[in-house]
Design a protein that fits this description.
Layout (H helix, E strand, L loop, with lengths): L23 E6 L2 E6 L7 E2 L4 E10 L2 E7 L10 E4 L6 H13 L2 E13 L4 E11 L8 E7 L1 H5 L7 H17 L14
Parallel strand pairs: 4-8
Antiparallel strand pairs: 1-2, 2-3, 4-5, 4-6, 5-9, 7-8
The structure holds zinc ion.
Length: 191
Protein backbone atom coordinates (compact mmCIF):
# COMPACT_ATOMS: atom_id res chain seq x y z
CA UNK A 1 0.00 0.00 0.00
CA UNK A 2 2.08 2.83 -1.28
CA UNK A 3 -0.68 5.36 -1.36
CA UNK A 4 -2.15 7.06 1.70
CA UNK A 5 -5.64 7.45 0.26
CA UNK A 6 -7.29 10.46 1.83
CA UNK A 7 -4.39 11.50 3.99
CA UNK A 8 -3.46 15.05 3.02
CA UNK A 9 0.20 15.58 2.31
CA UNK A 10 1.50 18.75 0.68
CA UNK A 11 3.14 17.64 -2.56
CA UNK A 12 6.88 18.19 -2.76
CA UNK A 13 7.82 20.78 -5.30
CA UNK A 14 10.51 19.82 -7.75
CA UNK A 15 13.29 22.38 -7.17
CA UNK A 16 16.07 21.48 -9.59
CA UNK A 17 16.07 20.45 -13.24
CA UNK A 18 16.60 16.68 -13.64
CA UNK A 19 18.17 17.32 -17.07
CA UNK A 20 20.77 20.01 -16.33
CA UNK A 21 20.69 20.71 -12.58
CA UNK A 22 19.70 24.37 -12.87
CA UNK A 23 16.85 25.76 -10.79
CA UNK A 24 13.21 25.31 -11.77
CA UNK A 25 11.10 28.45 -11.50
CA UNK A 26 7.39 29.11 -12.01
CA UNK A 27 6.82 30.23 -15.60
CA UNK A 28 3.67 30.71 -17.68
CA UNK A 29 3.58 28.13 -20.49
CA UNK A 30 0.61 28.23 -22.87
CA UNK A 31 -1.28 30.23 -20.28
CA UNK A 32 -0.63 27.82 -17.39
CA UNK A 33 1.96 28.36 -14.69
CA UNK A 34 4.45 25.48 -14.72
CA UNK A 35 7.79 24.91 -13.07
CA UNK A 36 10.38 25.12 -15.84
CA UNK A 37 14.14 25.18 -16.12
CA UNK A 38 15.71 28.67 -15.96
CA UNK A 39 18.35 27.57 -18.54
CA UNK A 40 16.53 28.29 -21.80
CA UNK A 41 18.59 25.95 -23.98
CA UNK A 42 17.58 23.06 -21.69
CA UNK A 43 13.85 23.65 -22.01
CA UNK A 44 12.77 21.18 -19.31
CA UNK A 45 9.19 21.64 -18.04
CA UNK A 46 7.83 19.83 -15.01
CA UNK A 47 4.32 19.06 -16.31
CA UNK A 48 3.28 17.51 -12.99
CA UNK A 49 0.75 15.15 -14.56
CA UNK A 50 -1.35 12.98 -12.24
CA UNK A 51 0.03 9.54 -11.40
CA UNK A 52 -2.21 6.47 -11.79
CA UNK A 53 -2.71 4.32 -8.70
CA UNK A 54 -4.64 1.04 -8.54
CA UNK A 55 -7.02 0.22 -5.69
CA UNK A 56 -8.51 -3.17 -4.81
CA UNK A 57 -11.88 -3.60 -3.21
CA UNK A 58 -11.05 -7.11 -2.07
CA UNK A 59 -13.65 -9.81 -1.55
CA UNK A 60 -12.36 -12.66 0.60
CA UNK A 61 -14.31 -15.58 2.09
CA UNK A 62 -17.59 -13.89 1.18
CA UNK A 63 -16.68 -10.65 2.97
CA UNK A 64 -15.01 -7.39 2.05
CA UNK A 65 -11.50 -6.96 3.35
CA UNK A 66 -10.37 -3.56 4.56
CA UNK A 67 -6.78 -2.83 5.49
CA UNK A 68 -5.10 -0.41 7.88
CA UNK A 69 -1.79 1.08 6.82
CA UNK A 70 0.87 0.61 9.51
CA UNK A 71 1.33 4.39 9.72
CA UNK A 72 -2.35 5.18 10.08
CA UNK A 73 -4.22 5.84 13.34
CA UNK A 74 -6.33 3.10 14.93
CA UNK A 75 -9.73 2.64 13.34
CA UNK A 76 -8.80 4.04 9.93
CA UNK A 77 -9.21 1.39 7.23
CA UNK A 78 -9.15 1.57 3.46
CA UNK A 79 -8.51 -0.44 0.31
CA UNK A 80 -5.26 -1.99 -0.82
CA UNK A 81 -3.61 0.44 -3.21
CA UNK A 82 -0.35 0.82 -5.08
CA UNK A 83 1.54 2.19 -8.04
CA UNK A 84 1.88 0.43 -11.36
CA UNK A 85 5.21 -0.97 -12.42
CA UNK A 86 6.54 -0.27 -15.90
CA UNK A 87 4.86 -2.48 -18.56
CA UNK A 88 2.14 -3.55 -16.14
CA UNK A 89 -1.57 -3.23 -16.92
CA UNK A 90 -3.82 -1.87 -14.14
CA UNK A 91 -5.35 -5.35 -13.75
CA UNK A 92 -1.92 -6.94 -13.33
CA UNK A 93 -0.89 -4.23 -10.87
CA UNK A 94 -3.94 -4.61 -8.65
CA UNK A 95 -3.55 -8.41 -8.55
CA UNK A 96 0.15 -8.00 -7.64
CA UNK A 97 -0.67 -5.52 -4.86
CA UNK A 98 -3.22 -7.93 -3.37
CA UNK A 99 -0.55 -10.65 -3.41
CA UNK A 100 2.13 -8.41 -1.89
CA UNK A 101 -0.03 -6.83 0.79
CA UNK A 102 -2.36 -9.69 1.69
CA UNK A 103 -0.59 -12.83 0.44
CA UNK A 104 -3.73 -13.69 -1.53
CA UNK A 105 -4.31 -14.75 -5.12
CA UNK A 106 -6.57 -12.21 -6.78
CA UNK A 107 -8.84 -12.22 -9.76
CA UNK A 108 -10.34 -9.00 -11.07
CA UNK A 109 -14.13 -9.36 -11.28
CA UNK A 110 -14.89 -5.85 -12.47
CA UNK A 111 -13.61 -2.33 -12.87
CA UNK A 112 -15.41 -0.02 -10.42
CA UNK A 113 -14.27 3.35 -11.76
CA UNK A 114 -11.58 5.99 -11.86
CA UNK A 115 -11.37 8.75 -9.28
CA UNK A 116 -9.33 11.95 -9.17
CA UNK A 117 -7.37 12.28 -5.96
CA UNK A 118 -6.43 15.92 -6.36
CA UNK A 119 -4.65 16.31 -3.03
CA UNK A 120 -2.00 13.85 -4.11
CA UNK A 121 -2.19 14.48 -7.87
CA UNK A 122 -3.24 10.89 -8.51
CA UNK A 123 -5.90 9.08 -10.50
CA UNK A 124 -7.23 6.06 -8.62
CA UNK A 125 -8.26 3.07 -10.75
CA UNK A 126 -10.56 1.04 -8.53
CA UNK A 127 -11.15 -2.68 -9.16
CA UNK A 128 -13.30 -5.35 -7.55
CA UNK A 129 -11.00 -8.26 -6.78
CA UNK A 130 -11.94 -11.76 -5.67
CA UNK A 131 -9.15 -13.13 -3.46
CA UNK A 132 -8.37 -16.65 -2.31
CA UNK A 133 -5.61 -18.34 -0.35
CA UNK A 134 -4.12 -17.88 3.09
CA UNK A 135 -4.14 -14.35 4.43
CA UNK A 136 -0.65 -13.10 5.25
CA UNK A 137 -0.40 -9.34 5.60
CA UNK A 138 2.66 -7.45 4.36
CA UNK A 139 4.83 -5.03 6.31
CA UNK A 140 2.99 -1.93 5.08
CA UNK A 141 -0.22 -3.03 6.80
CA UNK A 142 -0.90 -3.37 10.51
CA UNK A 143 -4.27 -5.11 10.48
CA UNK A 144 -7.21 -6.07 8.31
CA UNK A 145 -10.94 -6.23 8.91
CA UNK A 146 -13.55 -8.42 7.22
CA UNK A 147 -17.00 -6.93 6.82
CA UNK A 148 -20.22 -8.28 5.38
CA UNK A 149 -21.91 -6.16 2.71
CA UNK A 150 -24.39 -4.95 5.28
CA UNK A 151 -21.62 -3.99 7.71
CA UNK A 152 -19.74 -2.27 4.90
CA UNK A 153 -22.84 -0.25 4.02
CA UNK A 154 -22.79 1.27 7.51
CA UNK A 155 -19.02 1.52 7.92
CA UNK A 156 -17.52 5.00 8.23
CA UNK A 157 -14.28 5.68 6.40
CA UNK A 158 -13.95 9.01 8.23
CA UNK A 159 -11.83 11.47 6.23
CA UNK A 160 -11.27 8.98 3.38
CA UNK A 161 -13.80 10.46 0.98
CA UNK A 162 -12.45 8.67 -2.08
CA UNK A 163 -12.64 5.30 -0.38
CA UNK A 164 -16.22 6.12 0.60
CA UNK A 165 -17.01 7.01 -3.03
CA UNK A 166 -15.48 3.77 -4.36
CA UNK A 167 -17.27 1.58 -1.82
CA UNK A 168 -20.59 3.36 -2.39
CA UNK A 169 -20.28 2.83 -6.15
CA UNK A 170 -19.42 -0.84 -5.66
CA UNK A 171 -22.41 -1.35 -3.34
CA UNK A 172 -24.64 0.29 -5.97
CA UNK A 173 -23.23 -1.93 -8.74
CA UNK A 174 -23.61 -5.05 -6.62
CA UNK A 175 -27.21 -4.22 -5.81
CA UNK A 176 -27.90 -3.97 -9.54
CA UNK A 177 -26.20 -7.21 -10.49
CA UNK A 178 -27.48 -9.04 -7.36
CA UNK A 179 -24.90 -11.82 -7.54
CA UNK A 180 -21.19 -11.54 -8.24
CA UNK A 181 -20.42 -12.23 -11.88
CA UNK A 182 -18.05 -15.01 -10.97
CA UNK A 183 -20.81 -17.12 -9.43
CA UNK A 184 -23.72 -15.99 -11.61
CA UNK A 185 -25.53 -19.07 -12.97
CA UNK A 186 -24.62 -19.83 -16.54
CA UNK A 187 -27.41 -20.45 -19.06
CA UNK A 188 -27.68 -24.00 -20.43
CA UNK A 189 -25.82 -24.67 -23.67
CA UNK A 190 -23.50 -21.81 -22.83
CA UNK A 191 -25.48 -19.29 -24.85
ZN1 LIG B 1 17.41 22.19 -17.23
Amino acid sequence: MQNDSGICITPMLMTYCPQCGNKLEPMPIDGVERRACVFRECGFVHWDNPVPVVAALTEYQGKILLARNARWPAGLFSLVTGYLERNETPKEAVVREVKEELGLDGEVLDFIGCYSFKKKNQVILAHWVQATGELKIGTELSEVKLLSQEELRHWSFGPLTLTTAIVTQWLENTKRTKVPRSIAPQPPNGI
